[in-house]
Write a structure and sequence with these properties.
single chain, five-stranded antiparallel sheet, 10 strands, elongated
Length: 234
Amino acid sequence: MRIPLTLIALASSCVSALALDFKGRIQWNQHCPSLHELGQAKVVLDNGKLSGGVTRDGSFVIPDVPAGTYVLSVLAHDHQFDQLRVDVFEEDTLPEVRPYFPGTPLSPAAAGTLPYPPVLGAKGRHDYFVPREAFNVLAMFKNPMMMMMLGAGVLVLLMPTMMKNMDPEVMEDFKERHAKMTNIQNSLQSGDLASGFSQLLSASGDEPKAAASAPAKGASSGGAKQRSGKNKRR
């Protein structure tokens, strides 16, 4: 069954009667003084669902806007604009325009309204150029890895002085432990896990013996001193 062309024309006329041509204007200012400075830009509703171009005097028209709630935005490459909330009604009344902040819900609507047709002005320009950072020595030393490397370097420089002032017995003990740890690391790196773990256990077992022998030496030396003192008295 074919639908007569008259019914199609009547339906389209009814839809166009319910729709609204939304009008507005972009006011030129110091950030955007002319259409030439604005460049290729358009005014859109709901991220491009409906759109309209900008004329030389800054005015724009978005045709056939049906009833509903929209977010109006100006898409410009170099300039920033505020967004607006637009409420278009089915009755023969003017739409309501309210300020809108990105990220906030549309409902409930803000209490204050703006005059229709709205007037928008550029807030500023997009700065796409990022200057190259100059070499900064202080910023380099704020890096944790650099601080660790600096501390390791200081320890390497101070190690010879610390070794000279160290007690000979402590020095020999330090060298023995360092040699044992080196052997354990070499065994583990070569894949000889059994030898490495055995050396590790033997090194851990030697530590209590060394700790126990130290008081014994002190006690024996103290006893020898007491005996020598008694002999002198005799």
